[in-house]
């Protein structure tokens, strides 16, 4: 028969073991929770962000799950990692190594960082801003990134000689979706679009480019080409002065 002392010892030992097991379990759960909180993914849009010169652009980028990014490092850059478009680290912007082309034009939505929104806003977009941007988010022992494409619409007009003594003007514009409308006017503001012909192509990103041709058939030597979105107010316009020797009677 087991003595009272022995029984108390066994119970005490069992309780001690259970307590130890409980402690270990809680510790493992805590470690698992910390590890999970530091793990995240970075997402952006699959389609390019399309704007016209002079407009503002927002390049969407966010964390999944939507954990706070306040204490993380957020680096937006193009080709050069060490010359970022915008760098946020240690709870503040770091402007010492910022690409000078984006100074005073690139900002994060700081009030959105607690919700995992690390998007970039570019103001007064230029043609040189066209291209890919990397959104890189880094914690102490984890980092993720994604690429976002910015397409800046451009319009140009040039002389085109298809042969046979003909002279045409070529109006070309890229970075559209859906296909835009092209409007030609002469020096007096008359719509001469009916005299033109257009072709539409698609690039590797699914964006459309338009080539519009119009013959030079009159004394008027100033032509304007207006490329207009069919969905928004964004327009692109270019004008070309044609020397008289190119005009066809």
Automatic annotation (TrEMBL):
Keywords for this protein: Immunoglobulin domain, Membrane, Transmembrane, Transmembrane helix
GO molecular function, one term: signaling receptor binding
Main location: membrane
The UniProt record lists the keyword Transmembrane helix: yes
SMART domains in the cross-refs: IG (SM00409)
InterPro entries with a match to the protein in the record: BTN3A2-like_Ig-C, Ig-like_dom, Ig-like_dom_sf, Ig-like_fold, Ig_sub, Ig_V-set, IgSF_BTN/MOG
PROSITE patterns: IG_LIKE
Annotated compartments: Membrane
A Pfam family assignment: V-set
GO biological process, alphabetically ordered: regulation of cytokine production; T cell receptor signaling pathway
Spans through the membrane: none
Domain (Ig-like) ranges: 32-158, 164-241
Record's GO cellular component terms: external side of plasma membrane
Name by which UniProt lists this protein: Ig-like domain-containing protein
């Amino acid at each position: 028969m087991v003595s009272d002392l022995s029984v108390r010892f066994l119970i005490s030992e069992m309780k001690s073991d259970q307590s130890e097991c409980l402690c270990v379990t809680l510790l493992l759960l805590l470690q698992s929770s910390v590890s999970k909180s530091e793990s995240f993914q970075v997402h952006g849009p699959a389609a390019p962000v399309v704007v016209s010169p002079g407009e503002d652009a927002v390049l969407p980028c966010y964390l999944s799950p939507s954990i706070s990014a306040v204490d993380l490092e957020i680096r937006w850059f193009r080709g050069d990692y060490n010359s970022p478009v915008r760098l946020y680290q240690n709870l503040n912007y770091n402007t010492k190594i910022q690409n000078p082309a984006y100074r005073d034009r690139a900002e994060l939505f700081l009030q959105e960082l607690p919700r995992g929104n690390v998007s970039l806003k570019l103001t007064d977009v230029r043609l040189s801003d066209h291209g890919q941007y990397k959104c890189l988010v880094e914690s102490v022992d984890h980092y993720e990134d994604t690429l976002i494409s910015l397409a800046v619409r451009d319009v140009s007009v040039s002389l085109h000689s298809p042969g046979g003594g003909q002279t045409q003007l070529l109006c070309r514009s890229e970075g559209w979706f859906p296909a835009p409308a092209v409007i030609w006017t002469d020096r007096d503001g008359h719509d001469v679009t009916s005299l033109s012909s257009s072709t539409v192509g698609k690039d590797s990103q699914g964006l459309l480019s338009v080539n519009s041709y119009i013959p030079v058939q009159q004394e008027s030597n100033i032509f304007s080409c207006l490329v207009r979105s069919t969905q928004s107010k964004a327009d692109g316009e270019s004008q070309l002065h044609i020397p008289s020797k190119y005009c066809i009677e």
